[in-house]
Amino acid sequence: MPFFKITLIRSAIGLPKKTTGVLKALGLRKRMATVFYPVSPQVAGQIMAVKELVAVSEVEQALTKSEMRASRKPDPGYYIETPASEALDARI
């Protein structure tokens, strides 16, 4: 089942109440917040009302909050293959 991945890119400060109401209905309160909704005509209509403020993509599976956080985590830049104690024991 496909999902809409909706991310709030621009702030709604200074915009009409109708626009801010649509964002609240979608669950978008802060910039760069992301929500997932099943593809439906109702959600598509809400997206069209705020299309200038959001980025939308269609994905196959909705991610949980912890999965989203893990996807944003940067690569540490290094990998530990064996602990130092095991390397010293192997020499002796």
Record the SSE blueprint.
Elements: E1 3-8, H1 17-26, E2 34-38, H2 41-49, E3 54-59, H3 65-72, H4 84-91
Antiparallel strand pairs: 1-2, 1-3
Helix pairs in contact: 1-2
Notes on the structure:
The chain is α+β, with helices and mostly antiparallel strands and 92 residues long. Strands 2-1-3 form a three-stranded antiparallel sheet, with no helix packed on it. It has helices at residues 17-26, 41-49, 65-72, 84-91; strands spanning 3-8, 34-38, 54-59.
Q: What is the 3D shape?
A: elongated
Task: Kindly report the oligomeric state of this protein.
Answer: single chain
- Poorly predicted ranges (pLDDT <50, ≥5 residues)? none
Q: What summary fits the major beta sheet?
A: 3 strands, antiparallel
Structural class, by secondary structure, is alpha+beta
Alpha carbon gyration radius:
21 Å
Number of helices: 4
* Main sheet strand line-up: 2-1-3
Q: Would you report the number of β strands?
A: 3
Q: First CA to last CA: what distance? A: 57 Å
Helix content: 25-40%
Average pLDDT: 90
Order of helices and strands: EHEHEHH
Strand residue percentage: 15-25%
